[in-house]
C-alpha cells in the first residue's frame, strides 16, 4: 500500500461519460444560489496524521459506493518541496484509517516541485492509468517559467515522468488535470497576464507526450490573479467540467463546458475570497457547488441553481482556520470529498453526502 509505484493504485479510472443532458436556461451577471447545503450532511473535518508540514492546496480523489465501501487518496506538496501521498480504504465496513506515514512521490532527476499536485486517471486498451501533474523546476525547453511535469503510470507498473511542451509559457502556478471522453485536459493560468489556458492530449490508445495540442485560451476573456481549478461532472451519462478562479477583484468566477461547448462567459459570485475557489457539481452541471477560503480563513460554500436562479448568499462551511481553499472531488452523483491545509500546515478531510 505504501509503495511509490503506482502512487494511486487504489483509484479507479474516471468514467468517460457521454450523451446529452437538459440544457440550463441561464441569465448573465451575478450568480445567485438556491439554498445552503445541509450542514448535517457534512462530515466533521478530520486530521490526516503526518510528520510533514504542507504548503499549498492538496489534491483529493476518491471512489464512493456507500459509507461501507469507499477509497480516498490525498497528495500534497510539503515544505521540502516533495509531493507525498496517503490513502484510506473502507471495504465491507472495515476501515484502514489514514496512515501516519505518507509515502513520497519520487521527482524527476534535478526537479523540485513549485506547486501543489493535481490528480487524474484514465483508461486505455483495457488498462487503467494514474496521472499526477505539478509545476517544477524551470527548463528552457518548456518556455519562460516553471515547467509542468506529468507522472503517468499504469496500475501495477512503473510510472514515467514527462515535461509538457510549452507549459512554461502559460503561467507559473498550480495546474489542474482531468480526463474526459478519451482526452487528458491540462489547465493553467498565467501569473503575468491572468489569462486561463488549456491543452489536451488524446489518450484513448495510451499516453504519448507528443499528442499534446496547442495551448488555447479559455473563452470569456476573464483575468485571474490566483490559480484556476477544474473539475469534471460526476454524472456517468453526461460529459462536462467547470472552471473556477479568483478574479482581480477577489471575487470568484466560474464557467462550464457542457454538451461539447463552453458557456462563453464567466458567472460572478458576490463574495470576497482569499484563495482560488473550486467548483463541482452533484450531477451534470445544472447545479454547481462552489467552495472557497474566506477572508476570515474559514471555508465557505454555495449551492448554485443554474436553471432557476433563485435565492442568494454564501454560507460558512467550517469555522476551523485554514491556509488554503479546499480541494473537492465528486466521484459519483450526490457525494463530494474535500481536503485542505489548515493553519497548522496539516491536512484535514471532510465529505458531503446528499
Q: What does this protein structure show overall?
A:
It is a single chain. This protein is mainly β and 354 residues long. It has a single domain (30-353), classed as Neuraminidase, CATH 2.120.10. 0% of the residues lie in helices and 43% in strands. It is built from no helices and 27 strands. It has strands spanning 30-31, 46-48, 59-66, 69-77, 83-91, 94-95, 103-105, 118-124, 127-138, 146-154, 160-163, 176-180, 183-189, 196-202, 216-217, 229-232, 240-246, 252-258, 261-262, 267-269, 278-280, 287-293, 299-305, 315-316, 327-332, 335-341, 347-353. Strands 1, 16, 17, 18, 19 and 20 form a six-stranded mixed beta sheet that branches. Strands 3, 4, 5, 6 and 7 form a five-stranded antiparallel beta sheet that branches. It has a four-stranded antiparallel beta sheet with strand order 2-27-26-25, with no helix packed on it. Strand 12 and strand 13 form a beta hairpin.
Amino acid at each position: 500500500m505504501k509503495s511509490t509505484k503506482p502512487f494511486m493504485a487504489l483509484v479507479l479510472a474516471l468514467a468517460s461519460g457521454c450523451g446529452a443532458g437538459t440544457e440550463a436556461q441561464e441569465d448573465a451577471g451575478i450568480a445567485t444560489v438556491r439554498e445552503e447545503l445541509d450542514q448535517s450532511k457534512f462530515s466533521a473535518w478530520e486530521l490526516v496524521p503526518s510528520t510533514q508540514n504542507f504548503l499549498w492546496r492538496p489534491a483529493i480523489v476518491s471512489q464512493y459506493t456507500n459509507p461501507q465501501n469507499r477509497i480516498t487518496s490525498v497528495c500534497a506538496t510539503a515544505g521540502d518541496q516533495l509531493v507525498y501521498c496517503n490513502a484510506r480504504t473502507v471495504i465491507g465496513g472495515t476501515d484502514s484509517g489514514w496512515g501516519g506515514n505518507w509515502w513520497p512521490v519520487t521527482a524527476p532527476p534535478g526537479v523540485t516541485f513549485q506547486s501543489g499536485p493535481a490528480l487524474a486517471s484514465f483508461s486505455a486498451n483495457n488498462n487503467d492509468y494514474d496521472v499526477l501533474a505539478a509545476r517544477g523546476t524551470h527548463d528552457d525547453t518548456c518556455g519562460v517559467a516553471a515547467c509542468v511535469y506529468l507522472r503517468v503510470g499504469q496500475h501495477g507498473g512503473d510510472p514515467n515522468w514527462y515535461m509538457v511542451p510549452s507549459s512554461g509559457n502559460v503561467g507559473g502556478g498550480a495546474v489542474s488535470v482531468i480526463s474526459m471522453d478519451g482526452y487528458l485536459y491540462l489547465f493553467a493560468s498565467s501569473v503575468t497576464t491572468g489569462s486561463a489556458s488549456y491543452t489536451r492530449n488524446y489518450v484513448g490508445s495510451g499516453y504519448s507526450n507528443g499528442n499534446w495540442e496547442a495551448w488555447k485560451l479559455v473563452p470569456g476573456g476573464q483575468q485571474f490573479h490566483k490559480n484556476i481549478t477544474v473539475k469534471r461532472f460526476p454524472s456517468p451519462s453526461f460529459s462536462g467540467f467547470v472552471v473556477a478562479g479568483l478574479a482581480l477583484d477577489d471575487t470568484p468566477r466560474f464557467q462550464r463546458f457542457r454538451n461539447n461547448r463552453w458557456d462563453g462567459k464567466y458567472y460572478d459570485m458576490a463574495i470576497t475570497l482569499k484563495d482560488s475557489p473550486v467548483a463541482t457539481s452533484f450531477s451534470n452541471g445544472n447545479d454547481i457547488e462552489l467552495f472557497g477560503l474566506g477572508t476570515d480563513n474559514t471555508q465557505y460554500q454555495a449551492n448554485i441553481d443554474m436553471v432557476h436562479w433563485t435565492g442568494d448568499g454564501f454560507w460558512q462551511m467550517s469555522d476551523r482556520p485554514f491556509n488554503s481553499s479546499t480541494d473537492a472531488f465528486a466521484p459519483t452523483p450526490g457525494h463530494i470529498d474535500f481536503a485542505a491545509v489548515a493553519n497548522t500546515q496539516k491536512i484535514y478531510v471532510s465529505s458531503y453526502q446528499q
